[in-house]
Design a protein that fits this description.
- The protein has about 300 residues and is an alpha/beta fold.
- The protein has 13 helices and ten strands.
- Helix 4 runs antiparallel to helix 5.
Amino acid sequence: MLSADWTLRIVGEGRIRDAMRDADLVQVEYPWQVPTLAGWNRPPRPLVLVAHNVESAVAEQAGRSPRAIEAIRSREYEAVASSAAVIVFTSEDRLGLIDRAGARPDHVHVIPLGVDVQRTKPAHPSAKARAKAALGLEGKCVALFVGSLYEPNVEAAATLFDIAAQGTWKDLVFLVVGRVGERLRSNGRVWITGGVSDSTPYFDAADLAVNPMRSGGGMQVKLLEFLAAGLPTVTTPIGARGLDALSGRDLIVAELPDFAGAIQSLVDDPVRAAEIGGTGRRLVEERYSWEAIAHQRVALYKSLLRAA
């Protein structure tokens, strides 16, 4: 990762320089490529780093060696120093970059990720019934978890087996969708799909969503997708990182020892579950749609261009 700027040379230095020459502003998604792009950025245009995590903190969580952590911290520091502004998704990551990478407080801007609320939306009851029938889940209450093959996601999916064993739900099934389940095996209570080309049928079949994250950084996009789909959701505090606008009206936040009970409360009270799903959907439409997020980013870009 530390030398990931070699990918820029595969694309072609000339092509990238030509594109930058016609740009008003340059945005980079990860710190590894900032030093190289900063060197090519002539004449200089505002360069914005989008930091998906505090990478040195993630390396510590993963148990990397002190030498590797210091090398990552050094690259992160260099990337922050070379940028006109840094966008982070959570207030926690903002404080992390100020502390670990020497970022100035006015240099780091919290602009969360968003979700396509037109593509991800609540399923009509008839569509839900058809999706359940197609997946062999008729008569089941379906709790959805979706994830990529990322270690904190795998850890969360494995935790679902323990959570499932704590409950006495007659018809509840935990549905684990995506590559997150590649190392796991289904049992009667937890169904594993593995990688899928389209998660829409699984969202349509779900009655609620769960996000039992125990570690990880950045912002949980899957949580926004659950809420956009109108699914009443139970998450850990770590799973709700960065979603500062959320409240108990929009979802349930529970520590892992209380997670099964929180799920049970939704299963036992479908009226309350529907209310939570509805308010979560409305909040995402108002605060976390890509349209709302784009307005925040454009405002930052304009301020940088005025100062250039």
